[in-house]
Amino acid sequence: MEITVSKFELLRELTATQGVVERKTTIPILSNYLFEAGGDKLSLTATDLDLSLRTSCSAKVKKEGSCTIPARKLHDYVKLLPDADITIKLLENHWVSIRCGRSNTKMVGMARSNFPSLPVFPTAGVVKIPAQVLRSMIAKTGFAIANEESRYTLNGALMVLKPESITMVATDGHRLAHIERSGEKFEGVSGEMKTLIPKKAMDELKSLV
Fold it and tell me: For the segment 4-32, what is each residue's pLDDT rounded down to a tens digit?
């Protein structure tokens, strides 16, 4: 794998996925990004097995392929680089070369096969919610979510979607937040749909939208 990507675009995607990267070292591969280069883009994947995020940016792909790179080390290093194009090249034994201007460093990743596979979701059944609507719902219910992960059903918010309305409810057992928005049509919703969104996913959505 060998690619060239602008610092601005790469840093934007690295920053967007930082909250998903596993901070504990019990499973080392989860502290890595999965980079996949193909066509004219670079795809980045991060997961902690509970929450996964895949994003992409445009890149000049000289050689297609994939590799894993230590997430926090890469993020911290890219922030220090000048505003120029960055060339990333996979070497032997999972080492990766990162060049930008006169800066040149190497980082060692892990075998691509160690990175967990993410579920593939069918395009049928995809629901589209305007970003500003979702952002408003999260802002008005997130404070009431229980912080204890052991209380699974309270450590998140219930979202109820109908063809022309959306409702979100959260409680920690002492306080309750409820918001309903109607009058808008949501693409892909034919009947009532319910889902429990975990607190960590809510936090990541809030930063993304």
Answer: 999 999 999 999 999 898 777 789 999 99
The dihedrals phi and psi of 28, each to the nearest 5 degrees, come to -55, -35
CB distance 62 to 4 below 8 Å: yes
> Which residue, 64, 85, 114, sits at the end of a domain?
114
Give me the DSSP letters along 2-41. EEEEEHHHHHHHHHHHTTTS--SSSSGGGGEEEEEEETTE
| Angstrom distance (rounded) from CA 24 to CA 22 | 6
**Euclidean distance between CA atoms 189 and 122, whole angstroms:** 15
For residue 117, give the 3-state DSSP assignment: coil
75 in the same domain as 23: yes
| Residue 80 vs residues 7, 35, 56, 135, 140: alpha-carbon distances, Å | 10, 20, 21, 31, 36
Q: Encode pLDDT of 135-190 as tens digits.
A: 999 999 999 999 887 787 899 999 999 988 999 999 999 999 999 998 888 888 88
CATH number at residue 195: 3.10.150.10
3-state secondary structure of 152: helix
Whether residues 101 and 135 share a domain: the answer is no
